[in-house]
Design brief:
The protein has 610 residues and is an alpha/beta fold. The chain contains 16 helices and 15 strands. α2 links the parallel β2 and β3.
């Protein structure tokens, strides 16, 4: 057991303990974890189940909201407080949804309760852990407030970004660690043990090495990714790659995805001989990392990749266990942080090398170099004109489907099978869409693909301008969604792409391979004015005043009710966002993520807070 300069064991109180990643690291370093607080009951069961093996039977597990804890009921003589408040509000997943909320989300303010308990317990030091994204939310103001709050309660603050692979985990997992203490000296963080920043330049632990002789406790065949829209693609992905393997920029002969139309963990397959990307707590069906054998990792493998010992017990279903592991701090990093704290703040004689305060770690530089190399490779492909031999789109076979037969698409708003006729010309397609039985012209639109992605009926037409012209008839505003559903249907049936999203890219960083060159409305309904506004790509993912929307729809909404307008537009499946749908968006503005309506199969957040 590590003892302080006073000869006593260093007593630790843990908050936001989760499944015990931080706690386990400090336990392994010789600390006494005497108290662990966690809100989720199942996670508490995990902690309880490891008593006697990794924690003392005397450790108190408190299943309670941290904001409701009575400081008078906490254990006495605590030397160190450790914890990592929930990170989702600061994480990359938050940014994917339109901006990380940070302290705008109530979970982002839990550090204030953490501060109050630190004041009440009066430890010699504390540790605060969180995701890297916490540094940038709300333009950095959240982090300034957090640091200021900790300094105001009487602690000297030091913090750094550390990567788990530098300390023995076979996983790239960057996390922010902040240490507060009552000395005036600067706290120094542990020297990397592996990688180019380590003193001995020891190679990283690879997944193959980490998983050597891992116990097999699950049916591996059940874990193989099969079925669904993209399951069959994983076997083609080379280890270390992801969905980008199926893009034109990577030279795929029949592209399925546009560049940057997905996130990097989509169909991501681990390379057994290189550190893997971050384990995800709540992965989707196609979210990696996947094993190089085209399957999900087993629970035992998840433990090894995160740094948990084989006999560490987790309670719950497979999904619940993966969530606990994915949300955990790697015990590998926690242990070296524990040793660095023991050496500097508790005068313990431990063998741990420390970094100088001005040492710069190279993981950001290496990522930047890799990104530049990738961009250069893509630029070379684009400038060379070396595109797939087979055209991305081909209408020659599609013509037998649309003529004279009808395309059945769903509007999602009353009419489930509008009539759609199509005529194929040399290198273009003309669609006529009828939302209802009327012959009232509603709108016309023309889509042109960028030169490198030609709509080609014949191989010799590959360099010709290719386009889709759409004419929509109908009397109701829902016709606008029917139009986009028909276009989405054409894309799916005439190409290897699975939706408009694959052609546009994610709204946070779109790379559209098509342009909307014409849009004309033939109705007085403001939905057409709105549709024309957002078919200009420059108006997507851009903030506009709420009055911009209410003025546009004022003719049919006398009370200019912004929320009512948003609800109606979202019912047509326009991905319109505002404070009431995404808490990170300022109060007086709104934005639209995509220039088209979302297809019915696409999940859409419909919650609107009034």
């Amino acid at each position: 057991m590590i003892k302080s300069s006073l000869g006593n064991g260093i007593r630790v109180a843990s908050f936001f303990s989760g499944a015990g990643g931080l706690d386990l690291g400090f336990h392994n370093a010789g600390y006494e974890v005497v108290f662990a607080n966690e809100l989720v009951g199942l996670f508490c069961k995990t902690l309880e189940s490891n008593k006697g093996n990794y924690y003392s039977f005397e450790m108190e597990v408190c299943n309670k909201d941290i904001t409701l804890i009575d400081p008078e009921q906490l254990p006495q003589n605590i030397d160190l407080v450790i914890g990592g408040p929930p990170c989702q509000t600061f994480s990359a997943s938050g940014r994917r949804a339109g901006g990380a909320a940070g302290r705008l989300d109530p979970r982002g303010n839990l550090f204030e309760a953490y501060c109050k308990l630190i004041v009440a317990m009066r430890p010699r030091a504390f540790l605060f852990e969180n995701v890297r994204g916490i540094l940038g939310t709300n333009k950095g103001e959240d982090w300034k407030n957090i640091v200021r709050a900790f300094a105001n309660i009487g602690f000297t603050i030091s913090y750094r970004l550390l990567d788990a692979c530098d300390y023995g985990a076979p996983q790239q997992r960057e996390r922010l660690f902040l240490v507060g203490h009552q000395d005036n000296t600067k706290f120094l963080f542990p020297e990397p043990l592996y990688g180019p920043d380590s003193r001995l330049r020891k190679p990283y632990i690879t997944p193959r090495e980490a998983l050597k002789n891992v116990p097999v406790e699950e049916d591996l065949d059940v874990l193989v990714l099969r079925g669904g829209q993209y399951g069959h693609l994983l076997s083609e992905v080379p280890p270390g790659s992801n969905y980008l393997f199926f893009t034109a920029q990577r030279g795929h002969p029949e592209p399925v995805f546009a560049y940057r139309s997905r996130f990097s963990d989509f169909l991501y397959k681990a390379d057994p001989d290189h550190t893997i990307k971050t384990l995800i707590a709540s992965p989707g069906k196609y979210t990696g990392p996947f094993h190089w054998d085209n399957r999900s990792f087993t629970i035992a493998e998840y433990k090894r990749l995160q740094g948990f010992p084989d006999d560490y017990n987790f309670c719950g279903s497979r999904g619940e266990i993966i969530k606990q592991i994915g949300n955990s701090v790697s015990p590998k990093v926690a242990e070296v942080m524990a040793l660095a704290i023991a050496k500097q703040l508790f005068d313990c004689n431990v063998d741990i090398a420390l970094m100088s305060a001005d040492k710069k770690l190279s993981f950001d530089k290496r990522k930047g170099q890799k990104a530049q190399k990738t961009k250069a490779q893509y630029a070379q492909v684009n400038s060379s004109g070396s595109y797939p031999a087979k055209s991305v789109f081909n209408f020659s076979d599609f013509s037998t489907y649309i003529q004279p037969n009808r395309i059945n698409t769903s509007s999602g708003n009353g009419v489930t099978k509008p009539n759609v006729w199509g005529n194929v010309h040399y290198n273009s397609m003309k669609l006529t869409v009828h939302y209802d039985d009327s012959m009232q012209l509603f709108a016309k639109m023309k889509i042109v693909l960028n030169p490198q992605y030609q709509l080609a009926l014949f191989e010799e037409a590959i360099n010709s301008k290719s386009e889709i012209e759409v004419t929509v008839y109908g009397t109701k505003p829902e016709a606008i969604q029917t139009m986009w559903n028909a276009i989405d249907d054409v894309i799916i049936r005439s190409s290897s792409f699975n939706s408009l999203f694959e052609l546009y890219g994610h709204f946070t960083e779109p790379h559209p391979i098509f342009d909307i060159v014409e849009f004309e409305g033939f109705s007085e309904h403001p939905i057409l004015q709105f549709a024309k506004h957002i078919t200009n790509f420059a108006n997507c993912s851009k903030y506009f005043k709420k009055s911009h929307l209410t003025n546009m729809f004022g003719a049919i909404f006398d009370n200019n009710d912004f929320i009512e307008i948003v609800q109606i537009l979202r019912s047509y499946r326009f991905d319109i966002r505002c404070l009431e749908t995404n808490i990170a968006i300022p109060d007086d503005v709104y934005m639209v993520a995509y220039p088209f309506t979302l297809p019915n199969r696409k999940q859409m957040n419909v919650t609107i807070r009034k």
